[in-house]
Amino acid sequence: MQPTENFSVPRRALDVEDFIDILRRHKGWIFGPFLLTLVASVVGVYLWPDSYDSVAVVKIVPQQVPQNMVQSSITNDLADRINSMATTVLSRNVLTTIINNLDLYPRERKRLPMEDVIENIMRKDIHIIPIMAGQGSRAVPAFTVQFSYPDRLLANKVVQDIVSRFITENLTTRSVATTETTQFLKDQSDQARKDLETLEDKLAAFKAQNNGRLPEQVDLNYRNLQTLQTNYQMLTSSKNRAEMDKLSLETNLRVEKARKSELTREVPQTAAAIAAMKSDRMLEIEREIRTYEDTLAAARQQYTDDYPAVKTLKSRLEVAKQRKSEIQKEEAEAKTAAPAAVAATPAANRQLQMEVLDIDGNVQRLESASRARDLEIEDLDAQIKKTQAAINKLEAQISAAPLGEQQYGDLLREREIAKQKYIDLDARLNTAQISKDLENRGQGERLEQLDAPSLPQYPTEPKRPQVIGIGAGLGLLLGVVIAAAREMKDTSLKNLKDVRAYTQMSILGSVPLLENDFVVRRRRRIAWLGWTTACLMAAITMAGSVVFYYATKV
């Protein structure tokens, strides 16, 4: 006998009647998971302890004085400051104190150490969330303090405690920060002032040691040197002219003296002639005295009486006056002897005697002019020496200036840096002191409780309707998946449509399945009894969990 050839027939497309038949055949597999997950969801959600959230809003009130007038010493970002305060407020010691004071987590503390209760439970129940109330420039910085706990009253007390600790910690932190900032800036300012004074002393000592050789004095020294050199040239020229004048006067003086010598050999020296000559000498000495007096008056307008040239003029004036006194005595004696000698004097020699007297007058004038030139030359020599000494000193200072230029520049640069540092630190210190006074007056930035800790009326967790709905939906979905899997696995022919699709032939008639009525009824009663018992037990279980929840609810 030949084996039959294997072949497969694809499944036909399902219609609505097919889906209804599938639900009818697998209703137990669909309803069973649904009922099971529903009971599990209800029991679990009502045995799950309630969690109440108490929330408080804390507002950060800015300082009362505008920031552009008084700058605060604390410039940290808002989130950083909140995190810093939260680290302190929510430290292990603080949370341990709160737990012990309010007797929190009694069951957890019995089976876990305090560190685990704090780290794994309480820290997860506390939430510090920064918020911004408002928009733009009207934004009000704030943050919320939230605590979740099964007891709503204790949750409220914990939030109150945390908020009060935040406010206290903010005051303490700002006070300590402003005080430490002020003290630090004061120490830095004092040190900067000492450094500046040290550099000022070094700079003053350097200036005193190198006076006239400082770099900023180089230009002044050059200008002074140029002035002195010009003055030196003028003095030298004046001295040369005075020497030329003196030379000319000496030449004329020699000529006059030579003429006088020739004439005196020819003219006898009579008493009358001598008297006449002495009279001319008196006139000449008076002119010389007037010349000295005029020169002395002009010198006193420029110099004091202690000036060497003035002293020389005064001494020479005294000498001239003494000579005048001597000449007066001689003339008086000559006049006594003159009448006896006049008659004997020949008339021919009188003209020569007059020429001799004129020559004597010229000699006296030339000698006076020569002595004046000597005084002028001496004064010019003194001025030239003084000017030359000043020129040499300035040239030495100019030559020595580059030697200390780098050191002087370093001192100036260090002084300017230290001065700027001191000015900056002093300004910051003043700002810090004002900020400290502002904090001490309570007008600085502070925390203010905007919303008091709420006393929740309803638990925030668990959300029972949502949990039950999700559980029932998952159970129903699980039942549908199971039914679909069984249907896909079952390849039997269910109805005439399956037979027609499988055989590809027309169906003339069908023979129904004949079963014993007693067996059918008995199977239905057992199924109904089983499902009724399951539903009743499920209802009792769910009702018991609900009753337990409300019976144990505070």
Describe it for me?
By secondary structure, the protein is an alpha+beta fold. The protein folds into 3 domains: 26-48 and 462-484 and 518-552; 52-191 and 429-451, Bacterial polysaccharide co-polymerase-like (2-Layer Sandwich), CATH 3.30.1890; 216-410, Helix Hairpins, CATH 1.10.287. It is 73% helix and 6% strand. It is built from 15 helices and 4 strands. It has helices at 16-25, 27-47, 78-89, 92-102, 106-111, 114-125, 152-209, 218-266, 271-302, 308-342, 347-400, 405-440, 464-489, 496-503, 517-552; strands at 52-61, 126-133, 140-149, 446-451. The protein has a 4-stranded antiparallel sheet. A hairpin with a 6-residue loop joins strand 2 (126-133) and strand 3. Helix 2 packs antiparallel against helix 13 (464-489), helix 3 packs across helix 7 and helix 7 packs antiparallel against helix 12 (405-440). The protein is rod-shaped. Residues 1-7 and 340-344 have low confidence and may be disordered.
Question: Which key features would you list for this structure?
Answer:
6% strand, alpha+beta, 554 residues, 3 domains, Helix Hairpins, 15 helices
Instruction: Give the tally of β-strands.
Output: 4
Overall mean pLDDT stands at: 75
* CATH architectural designation of the largest domain: Orthogonal Bundle
- The whole-angstrom Rg is 66 Å
Q: Report the CATH C-level class of the largest domain.
A: Mainly Alpha
| Structural classification | alpha+beta
- Contiguous runs where pLDDT drops below 50 for at least 5 residues: 1-7, 340-344
> What count of domains describes the coordinates?
3
Number of helices in the DSSP assignment: 15
Main beta sheet strand tally, sense and closure: 4 strands, antiparallel
**Strand arrangement across the biggest beta sheet:** 2-3-1-4
Give the end-to-end Cα distance, rounded to a whole number of Å: 83 Å
Shape: rod-shaped
Strand and helix order: HHEHHHHEEHHHHHHEHHH
